[in-house]
Design brief:
This protein is of the alpha/beta class. 40% of the residues lie in helices and 19% in strands. Strand 7, helix 10 and strand 8 form a beta-alpha-beta unit. Helix 4 runs antiparallel to helix 6, helix 9 runs parallel beside helix 10 and helix 11 runs parallel beside helix 13.
C-alpha cells in the first residue's frame, strides 16, 4: 500500500445526557473520518471515535472538553502526514511504523511524560480501519474472516449465534430507563462504579448504587446465562486506589447476595501495576491500562482472569495481538465499547462474534451502549449502509447472528455514506 493522499474530517454527535464515569463526564462524541488513497487509485474510508476521559483522565481534567478532543484529533493529523508518500506491506506494518512516533508526539503536545499510551491508540482507530479497508480492496478480500491475518485466525474461529448486548449503567442513568433496558431482555449490565468523591465516599456510594440496581435486576430471569440470573459487569475505570476498598465493596456484595452475579470487574485500580488481585473473590479484567502485549502478561501474573478487547478503542491491529496473547493462556476475552456509533459497533461485533463464548454466558459478550447515550440512535441506525439488517438491532438482550450476518461481515465493507459525504465539498 503506497499511500499518496490522506484526508481528515470530524463529525460531532451529542449525547442524550452527560456520559458519566471516572468521577467525571463528557457531553458529545467526536468521530474522526479518514480517507486514504494509494498509488493504484484505490480509496478507502475509516471512522474512529475519540474518548479523552477514558484514555487519560489527567488530560481530560487539564483541558476543556473541546480542547482535549482537539489535542487527541491532532494526533491523527500527525499520523496522516507521517504516512503520506510511504509504502506499507499491510495495516499491521503501518500501525507498527507510526505507533511510537505518534505516542511521542502525544506526550510532547500534552506536556505529560506519564501519558497513557491509550490516549494515542484511540486516535489511530480511524486510520487503522481505513488501512484495513484499503488492504481488503487491494487484495480482493470481501469478508471479515478473510481479512483476519492467518496467524490470528485460530483465535477468532468461532461463529456465535448470540452476542450479548451489554448496556452501560452510568451514574446518571434514570432508574426508569434501567427498567426499560431489563424489560427489553438485557441479561448483562455494565455498571459504572467509582462515583465522585474521595475513596471513602466513593465506596459508600458504589455500595448503595449496586444495591439499588440489584433490587430491580434481581426481579428478572433469563435463559441466556448459566445461572438464569441477570449478571453484572462492574467497571471502575481505575478509580479505586486501594485493594482494601475493592475488598469492602465485594464484602458488601456478598452480604447482599450480589457477589455470585458479578461476572467480572473491569479496570479496578488507579495504579494497576502496583496491586495484584489475588485473594479477591471476583474475576478481574484489564482495559485502558492494557496498552501493550507486555501489559497482558503482567496482568495475568497479577491474577487477572479476563481481557477487554477494544478494536474501536485501541485499533483492530492491536486487538488481534491482544487476543492471541490472552488466548494462549486460556484467558477469556470480551469486547468493550467507547460510546460507539453504529459503524464502530459493527467492527466490534465482528470480533465479539468470533471469540469463544464467555464463561457463564450462552454466547459472546459485547458492551454496546448507543441507545442509552444517544438520543439520535434510531437516526444513526437508519443511516447505516444496511439499515434493515436483522442483526443491527438486538433482540431479547442479544444480537442474533445468522449466516447472512457472517456473509456480509456486519456491513463494514459497505461505504458509510453519512460519513464519506463529509469529503464532498
Amino acid at each position: 500500500m503506497h499511500i499518496v493522499e490522506t484526508d481528515l474530517e470530524i463529525q460531532r454527535e451529542p449525547f442524550a445526557r452527560p456520559f458519566a464515569f471516572k468521577g467525571s463526564a463528557f457531553h458529545e462524541k467526536w468521530n474522526l473520518v479518514v480517507r486514504l488513497k494509494d498509488a493504484d487509485g484505490y480509496e478507502a474510508f475509516g471512522i474512529g471515535g475519540l474518548a479523552v476521559l477514558w484514555s487519560d483522565a489527567t488530560v481530560f481534567a487539564a483541558h476543556t472538553e473541546m480542547g482535549g478532543n482537539l489535542l487527541q484529533a491532532s494526533l491523527l493529523e500527525f499520523a496522516l502526514q507521517h504516512i503520506k508518500g510511504k509504502e506499507f506491506a499491510d495495516p499491521i506494518a503501518l500501525f507498527d511504523t507510526i505507533e511510537n512516533e505518534v505516542f511521542s508526539y502525544a506526550k510532547a503536545i500534552t506536556g505529560q511524560g506519564d501519558l497513557r499510551r491509550t490516549f494515542a491508540l484511540i486516535a489511530l482507530v480511524a486510520l487503522d480501519n481505513a488501512a484495513w479497508i484499503l488492504y481488503a480492496k487491494r487484495t480482493g478480500l470481501t469478508t471479515f474472516d478473510a481479512l483476519i491475518p492467518e496467524k490470528f485466525r485460530s483465535f477468532l474461529s468461532h461463529r456465535q449465534s448470540h452476542v450479548a448486548l451489554v448496556p452501560a449503567v452510568s451514574y446518571t442513568l434514570p432508574i426508569e430507563e434501567l427498567r426499560a433496558i431489563l424489560d427489553s431482555g438485557a441479561y448483562i449490565l455494565k455498571i459504572k462504579i467509582g462515583h465522585p468523591g474521595d475513596e471513602t465516599e466513593m465506596v459508600k456510594t458504589d455500595m448503595a448504587c449496586l444495591s439499588q440496581i440489584h433490587s430491580l435486576a434481581s426481579q428478572y430471569e433469563t435463559e441466556m446465562t448459566d445461572s438464569g440470573h441477570v449478571l453484572y459487569y462492574l467497571d471502575a475505570n481505575g478509580r479505586y486506589g486501594e485493594k482494601n476498598s475493592m475488598a469492602r465493596l465485594l464484602d458488601h456484595a456478598d452480604n447482599e447476595g450480589i457477589l455470585d452475579r458479578i461476572v467480572l470487574i473491569e479496570e479496578p485500580f488507579s495504579r494497576p501495576a502496583d496491586i495484584d488481585v489475588h485473594g479477591l473473590p471476583a474475576c478481574f479484567a484489564g482495559d485502558e491500562s492494557i496498552e501493550t502485549i507486555a501489559d497482558v502478561h503482567i496482568r495475568l501474573e497479577q491474577g487477572y482472569g479476563a481481557m477487554a478487547i477494544k478494536p474501536a478503542g485501541k485499533t483492530l491491529s492491536l486487538a488481534f495481538r491482544m487476543i492471541e496473547a490472552a488466548t494462549r493462556y486460556n484467558v477469556p476475552c470480551f469486547v468493550a465499547d467507547n460510546a460507539c456509533v453504529p459503524v464502530l459497533v459493527e467492527w466490534n461485533k465482528n470480533v465479539a462474534a468470533r471469540l469463544p463464548a464467555f464463561p457463564g454466558v450462552k454466547g459472546g459478550l459485547m458492551e454496546s451502549n448507543g441507545p442509552e447515550n444517544y438520543g439520535t440512535w434510531d437516526r444513526m441506525l437508519s443511516e447505516y449502509p444496511v439499515p434493515n439488517a436483522s442483526w443491527l438491532r438486538p433482540r431479547s438482550g442479544a444480537y442474533v447472528l445468522d449466516g447472512n450476518y457472517y456473509d456480509q461481515s456486519g456491513g463494514i465493507f459497505e461505504e458509510p455514506a453519512v460519513y464519506t459525504r463529509l469529503f464532498k465539498k
